[in-house]
Amino acid sequence: MQSGSPEPPTLLGKSSLFTDQRLLDVKHNDYAWQALAPDSLEDWRRRKDFTLEQVRLAAGMLPQFEALELQPRVWGHTAYEGCVIAKVSMETLPGLKLTGNLYMPGMIQSKAPAILCPHGHWEKGRLHHDERGSVPMRCLMLARLGFVVFSYDMIGYNDNDELLHRWEKPLRLPAALHGVSPFGLQTWNSLQALEFLCSMPEVDQERLGCTGASGGASQTWTLALLDERIKVLAPVCMLSAHFQGGCLCEEGPLLRLNGVTSFDIVSALAPRPMLLPSVTQDWTNLLPQYEFPALQQVYRLFDAEQNLANFHCDAPHNYNRYTR
């Protein structure tokens, strides 16, 4: 017997034939996907259709929910800095409510453009106000520019507190088997928030937009994919090929099945006008060099490169005054 440590015993010899392929390429939120632009409009349409079906599946919308007739309650109108701010509450599914604030210009003489503002994962939700981001200030400034703005609560935030935002496994797993998830319920509320805006006589239904940061950006592009009435969007500090989002409100059951990425969702929105702010100190740090040029290729298929813009700055994750 030769000296030295013996090799550990094996049942099978070392061979690629006996390697479990499932362990070699595990997909996860930090998986580095490729941002691949389609080669033609036909390829783009095919990928868009697949992406749309995958998002609907993940949101539990195959088949679509049966919508309630919205009966919004709007009250507490308060004049402030040339604007009017009101409280809003309505039921969007039996037991599921939608709450938020409506910001309107003080004087509306004709139908006004409107913007939805999903807030994302700020600590204080739609009421968050600090140097990294102020949702009320964003909405107030937009209203002063002449927009009607609806800032609404994500599931589990502020006044929408009947469900938790993050579901533990004992609830999450059986709910997913029935197509119910934070992603699906939050997306449904975003769709109903748009319906609410469109029901307002003051709103021009041909001029609708959406903007939010982080998880609010995920809701922005998901809503825009599902409802093409969103004509312009600004998803802030979110698009990345190497990070798809870390919350259940962004990662619906089966959403990433067959390689659907955030880039696929965003590219499916072409050629609608889109502003993509990014920063150096979060996962959007490479957007100007990688994802944005690939997205420009998509818009080039429509001869619509002018509809796409990136604003990049040296800063942490934010939707602050400078980004606004």
Summarize this, please?
With 324 residues, this protein is an alpha/beta fold. It is 26% helix and 23% strand.
Indicate the topology.
Elements (H helix, E strand, L loop, with lengths): L40 H18 L14 E8 L2 E11 L2 E10 L6 E7 L10 E2 L2 E2 H10 L3 E5 L16 H9 L4 H18 L3 E11 L1 H12 L5 E5 L25 H6 L6 E6 L11 H10 L7 E6 L11
Parallel strand pairs: 4-7, 4-8, 8-9, 10-11
Antiparallel strand pairs: 1-2, 2-3, 3-7, 5-6
Question: Which whole number gives the mean pLDDT?
Answer: 87
Give the SSE order as H and E letters: HEEEEEEHEHHEHEHEHE
Which sheet architecture does the biggest sheet show? 7 strands, mixed
The rounded Rg comes to 22 Å
Low-confidence stretches: none
CATH classification class: Alpha Beta
Our count of domains comes out at 1
Kindly describe this structure.
Helix content is about 25%, strand content about 25%. The protein is of the alpha/beta class. It has a single domain, classed as Rossmann fold. The strands form three sheets. Strands 1-2-3-7-4-8-9 form a seven-stranded mixed beta sheet. Strands 5-6 form a two-stranded antiparallel ribbon. It has a two-stranded parallel ribbon with strand order 10-11. Helix 5 links the parallel strand 8 and strand 9 (about 230-235). Helix 4 (about 180-200) crosses helix 5. The mean pLDDT is about 85.
Question: Can you tag this structure with a few keywords?
Answer:
324 residues; alpha/beta; Rossmann fold; seven-stranded mixed sheet; two-stranded antiparallel ribbon; 7 helices; 26% helix
